[in-house]
Amino acid sequence: MKVDPITFAVIKSGLDSIADDMAYTVVRIARSEIVKDVMDFSAALCAGDGQMVAQAKTIAQHLGAIPEAMASVLAKFEGDLHDGDVVIMNDPYHGGMHLPDIFMFVPIFFGGERHAFAVVICHHTDVGGRVPGSNASDSTEIYQEGLRIPPLKLYDRGVLNTTLEALIKINVRVPDRVWGDLSAQFAAAQVGKRGLEKLLQRYGAAEVDAYMQELLDYAERLTRREIKTWPKGTYRFVDYIDNDGFSDAPIPIKVAITVNGDGTLLVDYTGSSPQVKGALNSTLSFTHSLTYLSVRCVLAKDVPNNVGLFRCITVKAPEASVLNPVMPAPCAARALTGYRVFDTMLGALAQIVPDKVPAAGEGGNSVICISGLRPNRQPFIIVDMICGAWGGRPDKDGLEAVTNASQNLSNMPVEVMEAEHPVRIEDYSFVPDSCGAGQYRGGVGVRRSYRILAPEALLQLRTDRVTFQPYGLNGGEPGGSSRNFIEIGNERSALPGKITTTVMRDTLIIHEQAGAGGFGNPLLREPEQVREDFLDGKITAAFAEQHYAVRFGARGALDVEATARLRSERAASAEPSGARHGA
User: Fold this and answer.
1) What is the reported pLDDT for 225?
2) 508-512 and 423-430 as β-strands: parallel, antiparallel, unpaired?
3) Pairing, β 251-259 against β 233-241
4) CB–CB of 102/89 below 8 Å?
């Protein structure tokens, strides 16, 4: 086929716009805070053969898992998919990620033939199981985690499967919210279907199909071309999850990235932890997704986000490991492991393309789940995913109170949480001195405190980076540690990073998220920038002197002479006697 560049660009932009329209539809219609406010959902379009061709600007972690979920759907229903069908699934052992993430696939037909799929994934507030929210880190087998849905038709030729509807509603604690969010997924998929039908009508099915395949090939060509410029060799890195909540043993994530001369990568996770007792196990589809995402983050902006990029990356994850578990390993809190895969991949990629990789971020969002019963015996479930800080970048400071770079989440507004649930947020602020020092400092962590207003509630924490701080790069220092506290009356005590426990009315729960790592030697940071951080309340005077050798005088004025003396002494003490400068 002769490719017309203008038609190619128009069809590419059209597919991207349709996917984004699907995402906007979810935000407008969804019922639960975790979808409409936190924005834990994603949308994509796939070609008729199931290959993903376009992604909305939504949860990046979800989208690399679509190929395996789609393969599961086609294995079950190929030859039995019709106009009006809607297939849903969530089972991690059928290509899913964890049970709260329900995939919805809608085949799109034109002229009697299938030409595409609209795909929408939402994290649902609850899918049953032993604890509200279905997201606990202390489940020990998948059967405890909720309703497992293999690929099943929710609609068959436009007719709702009322048996499946009843089965879902009776097994979840907040059926109105779950069904409302499923309805939002359905509406978004219909928006995608209508948009693609218009594209097919305008250009013809054969031409759109051909350009979809060309879009995949184009992404592969661009990816290979860029990887060919990388230094050949094998690059290794290891990072850690603190523990699984049952044992104090650290959970290593090890990676070896081999850059090949043909523009491909081998990503080998051999040496990573075996699967663990707690629910931190990452399904292979999710491990693939984080691997693809990490590589995509260091490629040029114009590389399309589709399966063509994935073709250049081979992933090896040992079976029965924390990155490729076998039944009946629990997976509910697998996102934490995904975040650490992202950090580990970036640590290795920093050795390949050091000018494109920041220091480690906060380690992934913290999940604070608070649930219980209202006075009318109706359940409430808060799933708060706290977004934190980016690491210092090669040319800029890290950001704070923003989504982890592997996600596109948002912090839940305090007003929404308090209006919907029996809880009061008494502190939502930055944690001073939590940033990793560097020429470009890491972002500071976020603190949130929750006052329980219900008579009794179940608290679930899924937090990390208490023991293993976010790493710095190029001489930058690690970020601060995460901390959790419980306050009953006037007594405050520490909580572990992962716990499920009952709390009573007026209990105060405090979470302090880790700060991000710094980039570059802290002594190269301009003293005036250090002063600005001090005046903004992000660091204290003691932190400035200890980490930056910067001293302040009265009213926060920079003490130029003392700072120069301190920095000279610090540089001399760090340099070996007789050391030479230059080559």
Assistant:
1) 97
2) unpaired
3) antiparallel
4) yes
Q: d(Cα 496, Cα 519) in Å, to the nearest integer?
A: 29
pLDDT digits (tens, 9 = 90+) for 211-222: 999 999 999 999
Contact predicate 480/257, CB 8 Å: no
Q: Is 263 left (phi over 0), alpha (psi -120 to 50) or beta?
A: left
Distance between CA atoms of residues 314 and 292, nearest Å = 10
- Tokens read off for 107: 């085949």
265-268 β-sheet, strand order: 233-241, 251-259, 265-268, 313-316
* pLDDT surpassing 60 at residue 24: yes
Q: Is the dihedral of CA 130, 132, 138, 144 positive or negative?
A: positive
- Which pair of tokens denotes residue 70? 């789609």
From first CA to last CA, the distance across the chain in angstroms is: 55
Task: State the average pLDDT over residues 325-337.
Answer: 96
Does residue 582 carry a pLDDT above 80?
A: no
Instruction: Output the six-digit token pair for 111.
Output: 């002229």
pLDDT (0 to 100) of residue 60: 81
CA 116 to chain centre: 27
**Residues 105/52, Cβ–Cβ less than 8 Å:** no
d(CA 32, CA 421): 12
Residue 516, Cα to own-chain centre: how many angstroms? 16
CA-derived radius of gyration, the chain: 25
Which pLDDT score is estimated for 332? 96
Reading the block at residue 255, the tokens are 């990676």
Query: What is the distance between the alpha carbons of residues 273 and 454, in angstroms, rounded to a whole number?
Result: 40
The token pair at 515 is 């700060």
The model's pLDDT over 68-93, given as tens digits with 9 standing for 90+, comes to 999 999 999 999 999 999 999 999 99
Number of H helices, E strands in the chain: 14, 20
The kind and range of the H/E element at 428 are: strand 423-430
Separation of alpha carbons 440 and 283, rounded Å:
35
**Residues found in the chain:** 583
pLDDT over threshold 70, residue 579: no
Considering only CA atoms, which of 187, 208, 40 is closest in space to residue 116?
A: 208
> Could you tell me if 482 and 388 are in contact, meaning their C-beta atoms sit under 8 angstroms apart?
no
CB-based burial label for 200 (10 Å; 0-12, 13-18, 19+): buried
Question: Which tens digit of pLDDT belongs to each residue from 170-205?
Answer: 999 999 999 999 999 999 999 999 999 999 999 999
User: Residue 580's pLDDT is what?
Assistant: 27
Closest by CA to 212, choosing from 389, 75, 12, 346, is 12
pLDDT tens-digit series, residues 336-367? 999 999 999 999 999 999 999 999 999 999 99
Q: How far apart are CA 563 and CA 317, in angstroms?
A: 50
One-letter amino acid for residue 213 of the chain: Q
